[in-house]
Amino acid sequence: MPSTVKDPGTGQPWSALRHLLDLLAQGAPPEHFNRPAEEAAEAGADAAESEAIAEATRVALRIRRTLSQHRRREAELAALFDTAGDLAALRDLDAVLRAITHRAKLLLGTDVTYLSLNDDEAGDTYMRVTDGCVSAAFQQVRLGMGEGLGGLVAESARPYTTGDYRDDTRFKHTGTIDSAVIEEGLHAILGVPLRLGTRVIGVLYAADRTARTFGPDEVALLSSLADHAAIAIDSARLMDETRTALVDLNEASQTIEAHSEAVRRAEDAHDRLTDLVLRGGGITDVATAIGGILGGGTLIHDADGAELARAGAEALLPPPQAVAASRAGGRAVPVGGTWVCAVLAGHELLGSIALTGRPDLGEADRRLFERASVVTALLLLLRRSVAETEDRIRGELLGDLLTRAADPGTLSARARRLKVDLGHPHTVFVLHAPAVPRPRLLAAAARTAQARRGLAGTHHEEVVLVCPTDTPSACAAHLAEELGPAVAAPVTVAAAGPVTGPEGFADAHAEALRCLSALRALGHEGRGAVLADLGFVGVLLGDQADLRGYIRQTLGPLLDYDARRGTDLLHTLRVYFAAGMNQTKAREALHVHINTVVQRLDRIGQVLGRDWQRPERALELQLALRIAQVSSAPGERAIRLRQFA
User: Cis bond leading into 498, ω under 30°?
Assistant: First the structure.
């Protein structure tokens, strides 16, 4: 809090802050948050107090927005889980369709929702049920394949959205469709396909009577509901077919009984998995349940191929070609006796499920396995939402620790709420892997932080990990070995610490950055170390000696000579030492005549003094060259010596 905030009851800032907290607790609308500042101004608050109140108001509004977003996301997920349970309990097709459209309207908060089913014989899609519609013509409209937004969704099996359908030229407009849309007064429309495997059976829509844009979250949410809806419609249709077959086809009773059993088993499995998620079951519980239902081993991986859960199976990476084939076809595919099914939310790949030990998986069990992927998708969406929120909070705490942006007591309290005890020794690690996208490296660091009760985030364009340990050198080496295979590329880990309490993290981070710079300059990519592991370079960097002064004192005359004459004798000196003070090898590296090398070395001797090649003096010169090389910041080129001129 700004320093102008006074003790309780002694000034306007404290009164305004209390008022803002009351507004947050009441869930007041945004416009009410300006009142504390206005009241303070009327009471004669000075400029510093007014600025403090204004800053507190901005923070309160950010908190309000964050809480609103979290409440909305929680409500959406809860409603989606309720929908899964409601649909699983329905058997009548008309009741299923009405429940789908009504729940879609509640989930997205739109003016109108409606559902069309494909007519394979007529080759079009027709309006089946609506919720919120007032136009009779709209409720009876039929769309040819490819016509309008719905016809395009039914034909392409892809979601489509428009902010204002009437003016959108992407769609094939017809008089019948446009007049029905105008009569209903619709503008913004979102349509997603109802799919059974690769077959589209209809389209689920959400629409508003005002122009607006549907976001990716709304598309994913409606797509998840459409997946459940397609399963529920299929189940209802299967039940109808079963009842008809029992009445009309007595001679096929055995076949019908087997079919009914498959449907019942699929419904029971779907209900069991859905109930497991609703009761708070984890990803391992879902994997165990799937394996138990299907009588095989189960593995669940995320979209990057990282294992999330395993039950009754050996470790196995999902073949990328199989995941891609399942994603494209919408069905589980067999690969070498293992069945693989992509886990999707709409068109977004969330991960995959693999089933081992069942190479003879029949059609009924195959569909059951595919339905299990829908429940898994819901669980992964929930996990992602929770993880994103927790990672953001942990990243903010880490940033404040590394910049000393808050009171130490406040930082310790925030850490305790995340089950991180800053009273124990912690080490700061800076991770660097240029061949790996930063989000992927951060995700691997976050998993490590979660497993070790630490923190992970990005700071100064580098991934930073903080873990409780009092052996930073050994832990850095272990992390380099552990993270490299996890991201399939070498990971350099620079460590500093340990530190106890929030005050030492910023200095430890700065030391870890210097260590990373030294590791990279010395060619130690893919290793983990602290400065003390790097010999004299680490000692010099760790003590923060006057390196610039040392370089200037040792190489100053040569720096000045190159600056005045436009020569590069420093480069010649560096190459000469690198060649083991061998003139022939130096000539080959410089690509010049041997006489040129002799002349340059003679000139260096004139500038630095005739004793420059004596062992003691040569060591000082090489040390100055090496320090300048490793003292640059991470991500930059090695510092050119002439900058010390």
Answer: yes
Q: For 545, left (φ over 0), alpha (ψ -120 to 50), or beta?
A: beta
Q: Write down the pLDDT at residue 82.
A: 65
Dihedral sign, Cα of residue 218, residue 223, residue 228, residue 232: positive
Sheet holding 307-311, edge to edge: 307-311, 297-302, 348-356, 338-345, 333-335
Query: What whole-number distance in Å separates Cα of residue 7 and Cα of residue 130?
Result: 60
If one counts every other C-beta atom within 10 angstroms of the C-beta of residue 428, the result is 31
Task: For residue range 528-572, list pLDDT tens digits in order.
Answer: 998 877 755 555 555 455 567 667 777 888 888 888 988 888 889
**Banded model confidence at residue 310, pLDDT cuts 50, 70, 90:** confident
Query: What's the rounded Cα separation, in Å, for the pair 477 and 419?
Result: 25
The DSSP bridge pattern shows strands 492-499 and 528-529 to be parallel
Helices 216-248 + 93-108 axis angle, to 10:
170
Burial of residue 197 (CB within 10 Å: 0-12, 13-18, 19+) is middle
Q: What ranges make up the beta strands (E) of 323-460?
A: 333-335, 338-345, 348-356, 426-432, 455-459
Residue with tokens 């929120």: 389
Tokens linked to 412: 């310790």
Count CB neighbours of 228 within 10 A: 24
Q: How many Å apart are CA 460 and CA 627, to the nearest integer?
A: 23
CA distance 262 to 392: 44
* DSSP reduced 3-state for 298: strand
CA 90 to CA 499: how far, in whole Å?
59
Is 550 within 8 Å of 565 (Cβ atoms)?
A: no
Q: Is the pTM of this model over 0.70?
A: no
Task: Please give the Cα distance from 408 to 487 (Å, whole number).
Answer: 34
Question: How many CB atoms are closer than 10 A to CB 145?
Answer: 16
The backbone torsions φ and ψ at residue 360, rounded to the nearest 5 degrees and listed phi first, read -95, 30
Contact of 308 with 302, CB cutoff 8 Å: yes
pLDDT at residue 636 in the model: 37
Give residue-wise pLDDT tens across range 130-149.
Answer: 999 988 889 888 888 889 99
Burial of 123 (0-12, 13-18, 19+ CB in 10 A): exposed
Query: How confident is the model over 74-85, as pLDDT tens digits?
Result: 666 666 666 666
Closest CA to 88 of 289, 236, 278, 221: 236
Hey, is 370 helix, strand or coil? Answer: helix
Q: How far apart are CA 642 and CA 250, in angstroms?
A: 96
For 37-58, give the DSSP string: HHHHHHTT--HHHHHHHHHHHH
Cα–Cα dist 83/633, whole Å? 54
Residue type for 622, please? Q
Structure-token pair, residue 188? 């913004």
Let me know: does 495 contact 476? Beta carbons within 8 Å. yes
CA angle at 46 for the pair 45 and 49, rounded to the nearest 5°: 75
∠ Cα 295 301 306 (to 5°): 140
> Which of 273-277, 306-310, 551-555 is the least confident region?
273-277
**Looking at the chain, how many residues does it have?**
645
Choose the weakest-confidence range: 181-190, 234-243, 337-346, 535-544. Answer: 535-544
| Three-state SS sequence of 311-349 | ECCCCCCCCHHHHHHHHHHCCCEEECCEEEEEEEECCEE
- Res 87: pLDDT: 59
Residue 181: pLDDT over 70 = yes
The token pair at 566 is 């436009």
Whose CA is closest to 402, among 344, 350, 446, 465? 465
